[in-house]
Design goal:
This protein has 371 residues and is of the alpha/beta class. Helices cover 44% and strands 23% of the residues. The strands form three sheets. A six-stranded antiparallel sheet has the order 2-1-4-5-6-7, covered by helices on one side.
Amino acid sequence: MILERIEIVDFKNIAEACIRFSPQVNCLLGMNGMGKSNLLEAIHFLSFARAASSMPDAALVRHGCGSMLVKGSYLSDTGGNDTVACGITVGKGKTLRLNGKEYGRLSQHIGRLPVVTVAPSDSRLVEGSGEERRRLMDVVISQADGSYLSNLIRYNKALDSRNRMLRSGMKDPLLYESVEQTMREASDAIFEARRSWTSRISGIFAGYYSEVSGEAEVASLGYRSQLEGTSLPDLLLDCRQKDLALGYTSRGVHRDDLEMKLDGYSARRLGSQGQVKTFTIALRFAIFDYLRQTGGKIPLLLLDDIFDKLDADRVGRIMRLVSTNRSFGQIFITDTNRKHLDEILDGIGGDRLLLKVDRGTFSRITPASES
């Protein structure tokens, strides 16, 4: 899949832009705060119809404006063309159209335009709460498996119902069993999908980590769930009295987590900044491979400020990896350091684009090898 062109109006600090991209590597050069990451955010927005972070939709609209629009023209791996347009009007909501036709539900769009983003905020995947890691699993698996998203929606609706019952002090076991049956049906599918996903990418992830780190340490990824070895009805029955006192459901797949380790120890507790960065980069590369293999489409790869907090050796290995691995398809890279970007472009050859970003505007500049 190739993003051939993007049109942006009043998205964050980008007042207006129309950019035709290279089908291979696109590098964005500029100081912090100039709009490099905002362009990547706009590309992500076309795939998910929401921000990469948890910010509200209204925060995507340029300050002082009442609406925004992002429109992308895509070339599929089979040669077809699609146009996706997503807009927000403050106070009225969001619209998402594929080839001019509005979706009935936004969830129908998930997985059509797969994208993998490596960003500075990824450190939260290692250092943050389990909610960050569950969200990662949900976003990735949903892109490859439409039924997973449906089960996740069903589970969360039933979970909300059970929590309302708990907060109201309701004690009728038949009512609980009715809601918990829906939770069980959905949670079994969620549990199996997450376990299968983790098993599938763990070896790929470990290989990428070894390559980027120069085999400096051994990284591992595992799945931890309260459903391991038991069933959801047993869990919920066992904790019902406790949950009545708490006012919420304390057990279930909404408490799942990923175990992230370096040399057998917790990456969260002992990992340096460089090791955490390497961990998240390797994880995103493994996710890329997973989406490419399961979805039949080559995702876009967005690398935002990827070289920060890494030593020169690891930076060099990443540059060689993204420069020579043709399975990555179309890549977008941001950096403040032109030397990094020129070295990547030198290693690739062929079609490439280098853009200077300045206060939300984009201008083409010539790579050093072409000067």
